[in-house]
Each structure stands twice: as structure tokens, then as C-alpha cells.
Design a protein that fits this description.
The chain is an alpha+beta fold. It has a single domain, classed as Winged helix-like DNA-binding domain superfamily/Winged helix DNA-binding domain (Arc Repressor Mutant, subunit A, Orthogonal Bundle). It is built from 4 helices and 2 strands. Strands 1-2 form a two-stranded antiparallel sheet. The longest helix has about 30 residues. The protein is globular. It starts with a helix and ends with a helix. About 10% of the residues are buried.
Length: about 120
């Protein structure tokens, strides 16, 4: 497999996970740059060209509330989970845990079979 093919597969794998990661991170209010730094600090590297459209899409879907706040000399738009976003996060977290457990089981079987 080439590096380009691997990169494409990684991108596909990460796409849905990023939504869950952003929702989970926005239990507390963040502006775009602080959210990006928090995600990076947790091992999830996301570029601005992916993060900002994702935030706007989630806000447009009613999953995030936003407000302008003065901070460090200038106004910034802060985002936080809405009530609908918190409900969805709970549902997606449950779904993630079920899928992750099933996938772990499949990966364990695949590892055992290859040994």
C-alpha cells in the first residue's frame, strides 16, 4: 500500500471520529483556535480548513450555541454544546462504545488468526 493510499484511508477513518471529538470537547466553551489546541493536546490533529467548516455545520444544525465574547484584546466567537448537541453527544458516545467493543473483538480475532 502506498503512503497516499494509507493517508486516504486514515482520512476516511478519522472523518466521523472528528465530529464526536469536537462535540465532546465543546462541553466547555471554546473559540476555534482554543478548540484546535485542546484537540491537538489530546492527540487529535485537525487543520483549520477542516475544523472551522465542521464547527459552522454543527452550529447550523442546532448542535452548538455560540456567542461573541471579549477576550485577550479582541472579540471571539465561543462555541458550546446546545441541549440538542448534548443529547446527540450522549447517543453518539453510546454508539461509539458499542462499535468500539465490537471492533476490538474483531481485531483481537484477526490478530489471533494471524499468529
Amino acid at each position: 500500500m502506498t503512503t497516499a493510499q494509507l493517508d486516504k484511508m486514515r482520512l476516511e477513518l478519522r472523518r466521523g471520529v472528528l465530529v464526536l471529538a469536537v462535540l465532546a470537547s465543546l462541553k466547555q466553551p471554546h473559540y476555534g483556535y482554543s478548540l484546535r489546541k485542546q484537540l491537538q493536546g489530546r492527540g487529535i490533529d485537525i487543520d483549520e480548513g477542516t475544523l472551522y467548516p465542521l464547527i459552522r455545520r454543527l452550529a447550523d444544525q442546532g448542535l452548538l450555541d455560540s456567542e461573541w465574547r471579549q477576550g485577550e484584546g479582541r472579540e471571539r466567537r465561543y462555541y458550546q454544546l446546545s441541549d440538542l448537541g448534548a443529547t446527540l453527544l450522549e447517543q453518539l458516545t453510546d454508539e461509539w462504545r458499542v462499535l468500539n467493543a465490537a471492533l476490538d473483538s474483531l481485531l483481537d480475532i484477526a490478530t489471533e488468526e494471524s499468529n
